[in-house]
Amino acid sequence: MIFAMQFELRPAPHSPDFAEIGGAIATSFIRADDADAALALALAYFRDGDWDVVVQEQPPQPVDRAACEDDPEWLDAYDEAAREGECHMLDLWPVAPDDTDTMH
């Protein structure tokens, strides 16, 4: 079964991207037996990629391929998760000038 979920992320302070990336919205498609397993896999991926989860926007929900057919990006992500086990799409934004002490 494929589960879809969404998170708001920020780079961990030790991440090489911390100074340049302000955050991201991540949409994850995970192949798993249940929602708890899907969530655990997504959280492990973010942790291993030096991301901190700010908030879980959408909890894991089962999704079928037909539900993704109207959005080519989601359809590709669904198919990748079906083949590879997971797919994470990150929509990044830069650090805002007022988010850093080094900008005046």
Give the overall average pLDDT.
93
Sheet with the most strands: spatial strand order: 3-1-2-4
> How many helices?
2
Distance between the termini: 50 Å
Structural class: alpha+beta
Report strand %: 35-45%
Specify the overall morphology.
globular
Beta-strand segment tally: 4
Task: Summarize the main sheet.
Answer: 4 strands, antiparallel
H/E series: EEHEHE
Low-confidence stretches: none
Helix coverage percent of residues?
Answer: 25-40%
Tally the structural domains: 1
Write structural notes for this entry.
By secondary structure, the protein is an alpha+beta fold. It has one domain. 26% of the residues lie in helices and 41% in strands. It is built from two helices and four strands. The chain has helices at residues 35-48, 72-84, and strands spanning 2-11, 21-31, 51-63, 86-94. It has a four-stranded antiparallel beta sheet with strand order 3-1-2-4. The chain is globular, with a radius of gyration of 15 Å.
Name some characteristics of this structure.
alpha+beta, 4-stranded antiparallel sheet, single chain, about 40% strand, about 100 residues
Write the layout of secondary structure elements.
Blueprint: E1 2-11, E2 21-31, H1 35-48, E3 51-63, H2 72-84, E4 86-94
Antiparallel strand pairs: 1-2, 1-3, 2-4
